[in-house]
Structure prediction request, 187 residues.
Amino acid sequence: MVVVRNNNMDEKIKIQTPLSDDAIRSLRAGDRVLISGVVLTGRDQAHKRLCKLIDDGKPLPVELTGQVIYYVGPSPASQGRPIGAAGPTTSSRMDPFAPKLFAAGLKGTIGKGYRGDEVRKSLKDNICVHFAAIGGAGALLSKHIVSAEVLAYEELGTEAIRKLEFADFPAVVAYDCHGNSAYGNEL
Prediction:
């Protein structure tokens, strides 16, 4: 990871996916980050299917180890763009599934809003991180997505699992692996 400073002397930490345990341990709630690399997408229905496969001992359609999932249901891409507006979905909707996915190797999630205590405990237990992205800014955030490809569950439309490539995608560490929260409600 590299720390860069802009003209306002605001610290931003550049991180690259896949995420390592050392990188995750170095992050603190409130850190502002710029994420680059491959990130998966997924929402409720895709999470439900992944967890069922885990429960059934079957292989997953995507590799989760070290990966980050962005909770997003992007709009259709306009001409010449890889993706349409791509703003974050409410994170708590994925709370029933997140601990199982963290235990299966997922290292990070991106969404908006609060996470429940069970998810936050799982972040600590599995050395994972949750990032917050700005809601209502989907058109601006999509400018940091340089490619998009459906990997699984195409029939789910916007809820399909996609592989995105991020370039300096802005986010904030909302919950770190040490039990800290950018929202002020520590574990």
